[in-house]
Amino acid sequence: MMQDIIAVLPDSIANQIAAGEVIQRPASVVKELMENAVDAGATRIDLLIKDAGRTLIQVLDDGKGMSPLDARLCWERHATSKIRKTEDLFSIRSFGFRGEALASIAAVAQVEMKTRPQHTETATLVQVEGSDFKKQETVVAPYGTSISVKNLFFNIPARRNFLKSNAVEMKHIVDDFIRVALPNPQISFTLTHGDNELFRLPGGTQKKRISELLSVKETELFEGEELSSVADYRVFLGSPKLARKTRGDQYFILNGRFIKDPYLNHALVTVYKDYLPEDTFPTYVVFLDIDPSKVDINVHPTKTEVKFEDERILYQLLKSVVKKVLAQNHLGQFQSDIFDNTSFSGFLGNESKGPEFPTEPKVNVNPSYNPFHSDGQNQRQKKNLFHWESLYQGMESKEDRKAEEASSLLIPGIEKPAEKKARQEVFVSGQLLQVFNSYIVADRGQEFWVIDQEKAHQRVLFERICENIRHQQSASQQLLFPRVIELAAREAALMEDILEEIRHLGFDISSFGNQSFIINGVPAGADKTEARELLEGLLEEYKSSSGIDIHDKRTALARALARKSSIRKGKVLTAIEMTELLNDWINCEEPGVSPDGKITFLRYDEQNLSKLFNF
Ligand code: ADP
Ligand code: MG
Question: pTM here?
Fold first, then answer.
């Protein structure tokens, strides 16, 4: 007789698996607890951290609290007060509630909660450890809720060891704190790390909150709005004076919650770039309010990626409001033909009269999509059950590989800057397929992406090179046999002119007299055997892009080097190489465009496809 071998996993293990998706590091706990406090209607929220969240993360709020029964139930999986029926998923004004956060946290930490609704006399204390219920009793406490999360990952050493330095973990915590505090100016927040109070934010106006959180003067924030039947935009645009060398202070807030959206970011950047020095990034905070049924927020487990039904209209609306606001503030040479002061609603009614549309394919949401029933969710679940033990090991080894083997990249390339290594996100995808030896097709559940391998790799290299130049840490690899190149008089003069910049890129090169130069080393990751070709190629590229100031020179050279060193169309990639490339690419600041401003990828969902077939 055949023996039965299937067993349903105990809850504690199922919870740990779910926790792997929701709770990746202390900052994930901070995000979930703070969002819950906001949802509970708190007017003040205090966050206390010890040891960058390793030993303690505590969130105190004065929100509506929980009854004794709720105080116990909330630790169960799929326990939520925010969804009752399927339709709620599409009508709630905030993000994809799954009732998983508290259960996930309790699975991987020692948790204590005190909670008291306003109208009751006593509070409830609950203790849970690694999903084991320890204690519930009645205690005295102020109204609201206080949750302490101690010794995160105490029962999963692999995860604990995988945490980064305190500085890195704290940076993530501050990022998430800002993301929650930013769109909730009416709530007072504090953040204390050990004995240091890092933030104390009294309730006030939106502008004041932005100025306090991002440390910019209110007068350097330009405010504007565009209200329409499709969406409401309210923007706070940083004066070009605030433009940064590194991207950082850029926030999209969708219906009150932080999201990432490379596509909308592109709309902003295209308008801003006329006002900014090259290679700098604008500061901005954009609030977008939209009918929640027109957004699919369950695309990504951590819920910062979304899909919009009216993506292209949103793109145009945003461009329009940004143009308007920057122009009103008399920035730069403003051309009247790009700014039309008439209302945008005319355009909405009749698309053909409107401004040009961007060329990316339109992405639609599937209105019948239900995260509890969808294939995506179930598949994820199944996959996890299958590999549940390797879940954490996988994450660990991926990070380790990134950190330790960056110099022996599978794909040749410029070495990754140290700080970038710590901030890896993983490209979420099913099967990867290379077609025409040039494009990677990635199955992402509700849609598939087609990524141009050459352009994507150029983007990766370009950002690394820029970063290395900025930190003056471009590594170079020495050549066994130095090469001498002789140039024509004009080229030689040009080379003299950019010698310093070329060294910044990681070339070890000096003048050798008589219009010749000696190359002793090339940028780490570049092809050693082609040192000469590489340099001549750079010179060619540089000639065609007339650099004026140092800044331009550097960008032009970085772009040229990226183009020269990237993998090409026609290169066969293994599955591991594709994964590595996509992970690096998705972590870029501007993955959507190549250094030359071309689109790097296309997205399709079922509706796009069916439209193509019914043309
Ligand atoms: P979700 O937020 O998706 O509903 P969570 O696991 O984060 O799931 O929380 C479960 C439930 O616990 C919430 O729906 C809410 O009813 C309750 N809850 C959590 N945190 C608080 C809080 N700070 N104050 C009041 N109720 C809370
Ligand atoms: Mg929650």
Answer: 0.58
